[in-house]
Design a protein that fits this description.
Elements: H1 3-40, H2 42-49, H3 62-86, H4 89-115, H5 117-135, H6 140-153, H7 168-173, H8 189-195, H9 200-210, H10 212-240
GO cellular component, one term: lysosomal membrane
Family: Belongs to the tetraspanin (TM4SF) family.
Subcellular location: Lysosome membrane; Membrane
Length: 243
């Protein structure tokens, strides 16, 4: 290619890099804002968007998840956009490094999820069950999310009704949530054992397996974008030496 054509190609890729990362930056700001909104006023969020059924997000703190993802996208978007605009090799290398770390973490997480499903279940149980004992019936937003989940998926707790043993709810209501007995009222251990309602973890896993194709496609798309972003940033980084 002639020097003019090379310069034109460089300029085009630089502009695309800026626009792409500007979109990422704005998306990160939006997610960060929504995360803060959910944290401050979770009830309004639930009323507008409804229950977060059929999603693994129901067993994690949605607000913190959105805040973390939003903050990461803000950093990536800023590094990529500002680094390309200023033609800064330092910022472009930082952008490349951050995206590479995230890409590696995603690959590791996918391998762990596929190979160590039992370990993942044990870890999730160890994290969520204490939250059910401490926060269910105390934190209104947390309780609303779990009530919606248990009602719509017709499940009880993460594993089963025993997750509520020695919990705040059990001690104050002298029984389990009504969903554990497939009723609207708190139920006792005899009826809960008789009904034997499945835990929500199995139901959520089933939903994930049902939508595994869509989730895999989205994951593959994200991975392709990350690889493309790293390739473009490295191209700009290398071309700066020739300018």
């Amino acid at each position: 290619l002639s020097p003019g054509a090379k310069m034109g190609c460089f300029t085009f890729i630089k502009v695309m890099m800026i626009l792409f990362n500007l979109a990422i930056f704005l998306s990160g700001g939006t997610l960060l804002g929504v995360g803060i909104w959910v944290k401050v006023d979770g009830e309004s969020f639930l009323k507008i968007f409804g229950a977060l059924s059929s999603s693994v997000l129901q067993v994690v703190n949605v607000s913190y998840l959105l805040i973390v993802i939003g903050a990461i996208l803000l950093v990536i978007g800023f590094l990529g956009c500002y680094g390309a605009q200023k033609e800064s090799k330092c910022l472009l290398m930082m952008f490349f490094s951050v995206v590479l770390i995230i890409f590696i973490a995603e690959v590791v997480a996918a391998v762990v999820a596929l190979v160590f499903t039992g370990l993942a279940e044990t870890l999730l149980t160890g994290l969520v069950t204490p939250l059910l004992k401490e926060k269910y019936g105390v934190d209104e937003t947390f309780s609303q999310i779990w009530n919606a989940t248990m009602t719509e998926l017709r499940c009880c707790g993460l594993n089963n009704y025993t997750d509520f043993n020695n919990s705040y709810f059990y001690e104050t209501h002298h029984g389990y949530p009504g969903q554990c007995c497939d009723t609207l009222e708190p139920c006792n251990s005899t009826l809960a054992a008789e009904k034997d309602v499945e835990g929500c973890f199995k139901q959520i896993l089933e939903e994930i397996r049902t939508n595994a194709g869509v989730a895999g496609g989205v994951a593959a798309g994200i991975a392709a974008l990350e690889i493309a972003a790293m390739a473009v940033s490295m191209y700009l980084y290398c071309r700066l030496d020739e300018k």
